[in-house]
Structure formats: C-alpha cells, structure tokens
Amino acid sequence: MAEEKKGFSTRAIHDGQSADSVTGAVNVPIYASSTYVQEEIGKNKGYEYSRVSNPTRTALEENFASLESGISAHVFASGMAAITALCTMMKSGDHVVCSDNMYGGTTRLFDQVLVRYGLEFTYVDTSHAESVDRAIRSTTKLVHIETPTNPMMALTDIAAVADICHRHGVELSVDNTFMSPYFQRPIELGADIVMHSTTKFLNGHSDGLGGVLIGTKPEHAETFAFVQKCTGGILSPFECWLLLRGVKTLAVRMRQHDANGRKVADWLRKHPKVRKVFYPGLPDHPQHALAKRQMSGFGSMLSFDLGSLEAANRMLKKLHICSLAESLGGVETLISHPASMTHAAIGEEGRRKLGITDGLVRISVGIEDVEDILADLDQALTAA
Ligand SMILES: *Cc1c(COP(=O)(O)O)cnc(C)c1O
Fold first, then answer.
1. Of 19, 59, 72, 77, whose CB count within 10 A is highest?
2. Atom 11 (ligand 1) nearest CA
3. Domain boundary among 247, 274, 303
4. 235 and 146 in one domain?
C-alpha cells in the first residue's frame, strides 16, 4: 500500500532532503562540482556532469514534485527558461491557446521569439472556459493559463479548462507563480503540467531567480530532463540550495502573506481615495466563489485604482516601507505601476482591453507587521 501522504509543511521540510549519509548534516550541501569521479567505465554513483544532474538540484526537484503533487520536477535558470523548455515539447506548425492577460515576458517570448519557429499562439479570455473550447484547433498541442492573472486578478476555472483540454486530447499547463502550491495545486484539479517562476513566492526572499516545470507523465520527466541536458539553462547548485532553504518556510510565509493581503485589501476597499480593489478574497470579486473553491487562500497579490497616473505617482513617491519595484512574492512589500512598468510594452490599446488603467497600482503584500504596511499606505495615500 502506498505510504500515506504527509502534511504540506512536513513535505516542504523533508521531501528530497534526507540527512547526509556521510556526515549526518541536516541540510543538503551545495554540491559545487561540475563533474563526478567514475569507478570504471560505465560505473558511477548516478551523477556524471552537472548540466545533466546535480545532487543539490535532485533534492530540490524531488521536493517540488511532492509539493505540487506531480511525478517529476525540473528546474531552470529562470521562469522564462522554464517556459522556453516547456515550448520545446512542440514543433513547427503546433498551436497553443493561452490566457490573454499573461505575464508580459511570456507573451514577448511567444510573439517575438517562438512564432519565428513556426509555433502559433491564440490569446483568449480563459476566465470564460468556453472560449478555450472554441479556440482549440486540430493542431493545438497545449493550453497555457495563468490564474489569477497579473495585475487584474482574474481567475480561470482550472478543472473546467482541464476537462475541455482532455476532451480534445490537449495538455493543460498552469503558471502557478501567484498562488504557490500552498494555496493552489493545479495538478490535483486536472492540469498536466505546472510551471513556476520560483523567483517569487517559492524562493520568497527576493534573492534568486529560477523556474520549474512539474509533470504528471513519464514523457514529461523524460522531455524536461532532455531539455535540461540539451539546452543547458539549468539552475545552479547555489540557487537550488537557496530554494530548498526558502521552501521550508513556504507554509508559514504564505499564511502570513494571506492574512496581511486580506487586511490590506479590506482596508483599501474602504479608503475614500481608492476607486476599486481587485482581490479574489473580496466578496465583490466576480469570481470570489471560484476562488474559494480552487484555492485554499487568497494570497497577497492585489491591485487598486487611484483614478489617474498623477495620483498613483504622488502616492508611490511617498512610500517608506513599501518599495516601488517590479517582482513579487518576497517577504517585503513591493508596489508597482503596471501601465509604466510590467505592462508598458503592450501599449495603451492592449492595456485598455485588459482593463489596466493609468491609475492602477499593484501590491505584493509582504509579511511585515500589517499595521506598519497600513500606516505607510495611509500616509502615502494622503498625498495622492
Ligand atoms: C516573474 C514571472 C515569470 C517569469 O519568471 P522569471 O523568473 O522572472 O524569468 C513568469 N510568470 C509569472 C506569473 C511571473 O510572475
């Protein structure tokens, strides 16, 4: 009989990370070794060359596979390297359906690099599952979604989209960066592949980049390992170790992110200078019921509208604790202005379609004392 699955935190702290058999060290060492001594021709201890595999990386990959309920995980040098690796599953002429409000770097990779290799992409509003159904063609190989989206926090029903995909014999991959496996596990809802920018919540300390692909089939494990070996965009042993360290506190960090996120969203909603707050945890979010169903928390990503670029800028200049910066998912509160930062490249028309106004501000609420975050927002909003 299969061993009963342990709790999330226990797995985060122990899976893939048994004590060192030689020294008893409780932490997996940083194996800073490019190559491995072989006893005789064809006889090694499982490692030959670190582009192919490395023991620190193996520990991390086993850990991630467990946390996302997959059978394999493969880590890459960044989230973008992971998405690039994902797309090598396809060949010229293949078609991908994806969310129309994805991470900007993903859209750039698809539209400015991969189309040159004959891949085709169709962008639809995946929060209406039937639009995925309509967009699938005979050449469609993959549906790639992000939920919740950045920065509008729109949700896609993972189980409904997975059903549609499987009826058509198409695989579903989910970029789960915003929620982390602590709050959302797409594979348990029917997704075939989960992708993360580990740079964000999984690392959690804003001190390293990384990406991962978690698979559910032996072909995924084979393909992604082969891509690591062929293209070489792997994660270094040091970065793997940082992630092993970060992920041990994922559960406690996410619980605090969520508690702070809810308080900040609720506080902003009542603030007279704030026109609208976008947060799946608010009862007036159009997909609040879906959020409660497919996520076990609401997280700490939210956006709010201040009405104009001038108001947003006046506020952003006044912040002391919250930092104006791109990225998200770290212990510190980061604030960004999508129209001029993450979503500048899609142009005014593109932003209008997605509802991204010039007054929109996005927060990745950190785990500082929430009273201090609120006080900082309060004094800054006075200036807005
Ligand atoms: C940051 C991010 C990426 C890209 O990851 P990098 O590690 O920056 O390459 C992809 N998807 C989402 C949702 C992200 O937030």
1. 59
2. 103
3. 247
4. yes
- The verdict on the CB of residue 78 being under 6 Å from ligand 1 is yes
Q: Ligand 1 centre and the CA of 39: distance in Å?
A: 41
pLDDT tens, residue by residue, 269-282: 999 999 999 999 99
For the chain, which residues score pLDDT lower than 50? 1
Mode of pairing for the β-strands spanning 193-197 and 211-215: antiparallel
- How confident is the model over 134-156, as pLDDT tens digits? 999 999 999 999 999 999 999 99
Within this chain, do residues 217 and 288 fall inside the same structural domain, yes or no? no
Q: Are residues 195 and 264 in the same domain?
A: no
> Please, what sign has the CA dihedral across residues 306, 307, 311, 312?
positive
If you measure from the C-alpha of residue 79 to the centroid of ligand 1, how many angstroms do you get, rounded to a whole number? 5
H helical segments located in 187-249: 218-231, 237-247
Q: Tell whether 236 and 255 lie within a shared domain.
A: no
Final residue in a domain of this structure, among 247, 279, 314: 247
CATH number, domain containing residue 108: 3.40.640.10
- Quick one: how far is CA 234 from the chain centroid? 17
CB-based contact 302:151 (threshold 8 Å): no
* Confidence at residue 189, expressed as pLDDT on a 0 to 100 scale: 98
Q: Give dist(CA 323, CA 333) in Å, integer.
A: 6
DSSP state of 115: G
Tell how far CA 13 is from the center of its chain: 20
Give pTM, 2 decimals.
0.96
pLDDT at residue 1, rounded to an integer: 44
Residue 239 beta carbon below 6 angstroms from any ligand 1 atom: no
Q: Which pLDDT belongs to residue 3?
A: 60
Q: What is the pLDDT of residue 345?
A: 82
